[in-house]
């Protein structure tokens, strides 16, 4: 079994309601994010690939365009612009076209923040 990943970066602004650092979090501020999309599977013997990295990049472009240099509070189906909601939002955007999608991680390298979404568990 293999995991294959590709990353993209985006810079975006947001506000956040929190119980700590309330005032500064409510002010519009920005972060530099890095998102990592991982597929899992076995390479096709003919191509040697799980999925062509070029195709993976194409399907990520749309998500990047929707996030980069945006005010995240204005993205209707995101909810509060947290790392958790961003990783799930990227997952929801990519999962219809990526059969082998395994996880989506979002990082804020400057502060050491990371969040990974594996999709919702399907009840047995
Ligand atoms: N569970 C989560 N908690 C918080 C999130 C999140 O996405 N998930 N996000 C934030 C805010 O984005 C906040 O701006 C980050 O706050 P903080 O860690 O205090 O860092 P700074 O704003 O000071 O950012 P710098 O890296 O210092 O610029 C909070 N919590
Ligand atoms: Zn923030």
Automatic annotation (TrEMBL):
InterPro entries xref list: 6-PTP_synth/QueD, 6-PTP_synth/QueD_sf
Enzyme class: lyase
Taxonomic superkingdom: Bacteria
EC annotation from Swiss-Prot or TrEMBL: 4.-.-.-
UniProt-listed Pfam families: PTPS (PF01242)
Family: Belongs to the PTPS family. QueD subfamily.
Function: Catalyzes the conversion of 7,8-dihydroneopterin triphosphate (H2NTP) to 6-carboxy-5,6,7,8-tetrahydropterin (CPH4) and acetaldehyde.
Protein name: 6-carboxy-5,6,7,8-tetrahydropterin synthase
Species of provenance: Sphingopyxis alaskensis (strain DSM 13593 / LMG 18877 / RB2256) (Sphingomonas alaskensis)
């Amino acid at each position: 079994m293999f995991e294959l990943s590709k990353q993209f970066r985006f810079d975006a602004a947001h506000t956040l309601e929190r119980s700590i650092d309330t005032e500064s979090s409510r002010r519009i501020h920005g972060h530099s994010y890095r998102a990592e999309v991982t597929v899992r599977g076995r390479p096709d013997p003919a191509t040697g690939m799980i999925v062509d990295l070029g195709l993976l990049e194409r399907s990520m472009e749309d998500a990047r365009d929707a996030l980069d240099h945006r005010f995240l509070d204005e993205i209707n189906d995101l909810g509060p612009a947290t790392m958790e909601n961003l990783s799930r939002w990227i997952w929801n955007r990519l999962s219809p076209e990526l059969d082998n999608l395994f996880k989506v991680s979002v990082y804020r390298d400057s502060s050491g923040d990371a969040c990974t979404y594996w999709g919702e568990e399907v009840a047995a």
